[in-house]
Amino acid sequence: MSRPDTDQLLLDAEADVRPSPPGTAARRALLAHPALLLVGIVLASLNMRAALASVSPLLGEISASFGLSSTAGSLVTSVPVLFLGVGSLVAPGLARRFGSEPVLLGALALLAAGILVRVLPSVYALYGGGVLVGTAIALLNVLMPGLIKRDFPDRAASMTSVYTGSMITGATVVAAASVPLEQAFGGSWQASLAFWSLLAAVAAVAWLPQVLIARGRTGHEVRVAPATGTRSVWRSALAWQVTLFMGLQSLWSYVLIAWMPTIFTDHGMSRSTAGVIFAFNNLVQVAGAFLVPLLAGRMRGQRPLVALVTALVAGGYVGLMVAPVSGAWLWAGVLGIGQGGAVGLALTLIVLRSGDALTAARLSGMAQTIGYLLAAAGPLAAGAVHQATGDWTVPLALVLVVCATALVIGLLAARDRRV
């Protein structure tokens, strides 16, 4: 593929627009501050799983506070994941109208608000806050790949490593700190969850200067008619393969995000130890999330990577079935490498299978809308099957079926083709 020209580099990845002279000047002004842009990306990425990971180590206390069953408790994690998909539907339209930077700023403010709403003394607020949290993270999820494709076209794979690594680092810190924070706040899970609204607020402050720098761009672009014969990503078999791989790897990850500590404590492990192992699982994901996109960017096809990450995840799930406590550290590590590699690979496939920034934005919206709607079923189904069987063997066995399906779909998505 030829090197993009200047107009392509300045193309707003979330809109069918071409910058006017004022818009071009604003984009160049923003790109003149790469350190500021990088800090904003890292801080925003730290929040992309933190609000989800903070719940899992405390899910037992949250459920006990409201008298929730396993199925109802699973909704605490499933509702945000569901709205990761629903929120993805509105992200491109918001970016088209207001620009990427203002929408990212608004998403971080909404995330901080949703975290605080979630700890109000009402089960409706608990779920309603989850709606806000999921919607906010959806905006971040959808806009980030397009923004990276737009602003770092020659370093898309390495920048994907940066933001996925930052995302998982945030989840790791939060998972490790949730139970100690609860104890530090006198046994208040509400205070522990609310604390992480500060992380979103700091990231929002970091994006404010970028919004001010880029403000001349919004409203100055001109609409570009799609080229004759342009094919919708929704009609592309390859786009659907990328989308389904994104959804299936998200499903197996969100089952663990929701239930890994509970699986350990149900087999006799202490809450604090389960929380530390859960944090270790997130920490190990950083290695996979950094390395796999870098490897993927150097390969014409990514089939070996699909096979590798899927095998690691399947092996880890088998370990949880046969020796959940005695092998906990090993399975957490194996799963972590596979999970981090899988999410990094899924996000990188969005970029690599796209021929330009506009296609990347459209494919990102499709993959994350359908993918997260599919993933939302994971925690809920696992909780319901656990409640029905009284054991974790059947839910974990069902995830192995997901792994097998993801392998087949992923091998198709990893072919050296473009949407």
Secondary structure blueprint with pairings:
Layout: H1 6-9, E1 17-18, H2 21-31, H3 34-53, H4 59-66, H5 70-88, H6 91-98, H7 100-118, H8 123-151, H9 156-184, H10 189-195, H11 197-213, E2 222-223, H12 237-266, H13 271-297, H14 303-322, H15 328-352, H16 357-375, H17 377-389, H18 393-413
Antiparallel strand pairs: 1-2
Transmembrane segments: 30-52, 72-91, 103-120, 126-148, 160-181, 193-216, 237-260, 272-296, 305-323, 329-352, 364-386, 392-414
Keywords: Membrane, Transmembrane, Transmembrane helix
Subcellular location: Cell membrane
What does this structure look like?
Residues 1-20 are annotated as: Disordered. With 419 residues, the chain is an all-alpha fold. The chain has one domain (6-224, 233-413): MFS general substrate transporter like domains (Growth Hormone, Chain: A). The chain has 18 helices and two strands. A two-stranded antiparallel ribbon has the order 1-2. 58% of the residues are buried.
Feature tags:
membrane; Growth Hormone, Chain: A; 2 strands; 419 residues; single chain; 78% helix; 1% strand; two-stranded antiparallel sheet; mainly alpha
Can you count the helices? 18
Quantity of strands, as a count: 2
Overall mean pLDDT stands at 84
SSE pattern:
HEHHHHHHHHHHEHHHHHHH
Helix content: over 70%
Shape: globular
Span between N and C termini? 13 Å
State the strand order across the main sheet. 1-2
Oligomeric assembly: single chain
The CATH topology comes to Growth Hormone, Chain: A
- Kindly report the name of the CATH homologous superfamily: MFS general substrate transporter like domains
Radius of gyration: 21 Å
Total domain modules: 1
Report the major sheet.
2 strands, antiparallel
Spans of at least 5 consecutive residues whose pLDDT stays below 50 are: 1-15
Region (Disordered): 1-20
Subcellular location: Cell membrane
Keywords: Membrane, Transmembrane, Transmembrane helix
Protein name: MFS transporter
